[in-house]
Amino acid sequence: MRFIKDLYLSNRFFAALIACGLLFVIAFFIPVLFIPAKLLFAIFILLTAIDFISLFSIKEAFFSRRFMAEKLSNGSENEIILYLENKYNFSVNVKVIDEIPHQFQKRDALFKESLKKGQTKKLKYLLRPVKRGEYEFGAINIFISSIIGLARRRFRFEQGKTVPVYPSFIQMRKYELLAISNRLQEIGIKRIRRIGHSSEFEQIKAYVPGDDTRTINWKATARKSSLMVNNYQDEKSQQVYCIIDKGRAMKMPFEGLSLLDYSINASLVLANSAMIKGDKAGIITFSSRISSVLKADKKPVHLQHILELLYNQRTNYQESDYESLFANIRLNINQRSLLVLFTNFESRAGMRRQLPYLQRLAKHHLLLVVFFENTELEELLDSKPENTEDIYLKTIAEKFSYDKKLIVKELNQHGIHTVLTPPSKLTVNTLNKYLEFKSRGLI
């Protein structure tokens, strides 16, 4: 039974069988062809037997394995490696079908290779998940054929493997490495000139070329008879809270990812960056009620807590309750903090309903409201209308786009900082705003 399950006949087998059958039919009318037909059929049977024996004579004649990370990164390209090893004593043709999770809706994970005797090879391909959760990988199906090519033998490896998809830790690590190597400008992070100094004095030290001459301490200079400067350090241990709206407005998808997933990925990067700079990072998620609160901290293990919390967040398609958000923040956050609110306002009326609560938050904390441009409207805004319906649609699109700008202006008038950004640039624009606040000494 095992032999039958793993045996597959190729197109070449059926083509040869049909050719023999046709030759026998023709030989019925032309008897002289009967002997060549029998000879050809005998050769066909012999080659088929040789092919079967060569493929099935060795029990473990091939090996394959899938190499991948223990968890995948949402919204990022994740590398999958398939290792192939030919243990036959002859060259084989290999067809590889990897059973990838159904969430990708891909049926083309098919690879064709040729491996010589004892040869190994690695196949690489990329997967980009757009939803968090558990992904089930199936088996690696290997179909082996010899140079004769009349039959194939199937091997199955790695049968069933569940892999979790977490918020984009690949993106987080990328920003972290670029920050360490001072290359953040390559991805749009601006160098922002520091205005003034932190109020936290550290020490008086000898002047070295490159120190800010405005920090010269003239009294200490007179006592030491050499230039001395005041040394300041950045204020640390400030609290940064990423507040993620999980209401129905955040379910809107752009390039496969929902606004909620964009916000979760940006929150992870921002929290990690804040902790690197010595600040404390916390997370609050809410919709019709407060879903989860993770107190701000900066311990190394805290990043893993953030990752685990963000992994399970889902929209519930309900209206977000900003009143309960305000009440929870007033109750649980006593120290003045930076609140980065990831939400989405599609109309001025929708924003004005929440404006009283945003004003109250801004009174006690430094509030940054981050919401999204509708990039799907860009093509419509740039198009030339050809009929009345096109004019109507373009007019509506322009109104939506203009309303977003008016929302920014109105929030700024009430002392609320804003970032209006395309979803694809959310992380960069949010980080730039955080660094701007740090440079201005606002937090």
Give keywords.
Immunoglobulin-like; Rossmann fold; elongated; alpha/beta; 3 domains; membrane; 38% helix; 12 helices; 443 residues; transmembrane helix; DUF58 domain-containing protein; transmembrane; DUF58; six-stranded mixed sheet; 27% strand
Task: Report on this structure.
With 443 residues, the protein is α/β, with parallel strands linked by helices. It folds into 3 domains: 1-166, Sandwich (Immunoglobulin-like), CATH 2.60.40; 169-193 and 235-439, 3-Layer(aba) Sandwich (Rossmann fold); 202-232, no CATH class. Helix content is 38%, strand content 27%. The protein has 12 helices and 21 strands. It has helices at residues 2-6, 11-29, 34-56, 169-180, 218-224, 259-276, 302-311, 322-332, 348-364, 378-382, 388-413, 426-439, and strands spanning 7-9, 62-67, 72-73, 78-86, 92-98, 110-115, 120-127, 133-137, 140-145, 151-157, 161-166, 201-206, 228-232, 239-245, 253-254, 257-258, 280-286, 290-297, 338-342, 366-372, 417-421. The strands form 6 sheets. It has a 6-stranded mixed beta sheet, sandwiched between helices. Strands 1-10-9-5-6 form a 5-stranded antiparallel beta sheet. α6 runs antiparallel to α7 (302-311) and α8 runs parallel beside α9 (348-364). The protein is elongated. Residues 195-199 have low confidence and may be disordered. The chain crosses the membrane at residues 12-33, 39-58. It holds the Pfam family DUF58.
